[in-house]
Task: structure prediction
Amino acid sequence: MSALIDSETDSLEITRKHFYDSIRFPLFVVAVIWLVQLYQWVAEFDPGMYGIMSRRIWGLQGILTGPLVHGSWGHLASNTFPLFVLTAMTLYFYRKVAMRAFWTIYLLTGVSVWLFARPVSHIGASGVVYGLVSFIFWNGVFRRSLRSIMLAAIVMILYSGMFMGILPEQEGISWESHLLGSLVGIFTSFWFKSELEEEEERPEDPFADERNQEKQYFLPRDIFEKTKAERFAEAEALRLLEEEKERTQQEDQQRFYPPFWNQNQTW
Result:
């Protein structure tokens, strides 16, 4: 009984530790962007100087700094909650690839914006947010485990309204960051799709060997591909073969066991 209690206690402790580990990094990221916003408010610097300026050499720094700066407190607040929740979900449910997936989305989104977006300064963490939404949703498509499909459904319900953010020609919104972040999320999900978690690994099929065995059929598989004459000739050949076999067996039996009424046989 004590072993069972110890086992349950250990399992609960592992789950609690895993939960705390999953929210530690998102809390750090949120704290950093809020401290940056606070410093920006105090120092009154232009956040556009640290954004991603497309196809400008000096704008390359924005790949690292662009997601950390925001245009206003409202802009920051709108990104904080989804960034925290989606990063925590990724770390909790996809711990094998979570950190690699996060930084892949973070950096590739920035590079894509620098290459393809309009020549304006793109700031804010919304591109990363869209990438994480896309990553979790498409995991349900590529991995096809029950858990990944359920997470995809939850994300779809909670963030379906974000679809409008990828539509072009929206004043004051970096729709390119949203669109490119979503595409990067799809790529990242596909890239890591084979690295399944332990809970996602499919159990071995106990009936696999039975299904792999050659199936037995009541009728030959090619019976309907032959003409009537061919089927008749085949049946006749089989009949003659059986008659010949039976006649040979009878001759062999008479040779070794002659009937007792054979008077010509010398004993």
User: Anything to note?
Assistant: The first helix runs from residue 2 to 43. Residues 109 and 258 are 96 Å apart (CA to CA). The mean pLDDT is 85.
